[in-house]
Amino acid sequence: MSGRVVTLKTKAKLRARKSGTASSVQDIVQTLRERIARHDVSPGAKLGEQELAAEFAVPRTRIREVLGVLESRGLIDRIPNRGAVVSRLELDHVFHLYDVRAVLEGLCVRLATENAPPETWDEFVELFGAPMDEFVANRDFDAFIVVYERFRRRIIEWARNPVAARMLDSIYEKTNVVIRRIVILPGRAKEGLSEHRAVVAAMRAGDGETAERLKRMNLQNAKETLRRFQKYVL
Amino acid sequence: MSGRVVTLKTKAKLRARKSGTASSVQDIVQTLRERIARHDVSPGAKLGEQELAAEFAVPRTRIREVLGVLESRGLIDRIPNRGAVVSRLELDHVFHLYDVRAVLEGLCVRLATENAPPETWDEFVELFGAPMDEFVANRDFDAFIVVYERFRRRIIEWARNPVAARMLDSIYEKTNVVIRRIVILPGRAKEGLSEHRAVVAAMRAGDGETAERLKRMNLQNAKETLRRFQKYVL
DNA sequence: GGCGACAAGATTGGCGACAAGTTTGTTGAC
DNA sequence: GTCAACAAACTTGTCGCCAATCTTGTCGCC
Question: What is the CATH number of domain A91-233?
Answer without folding.
Answer: 1.20.120.530
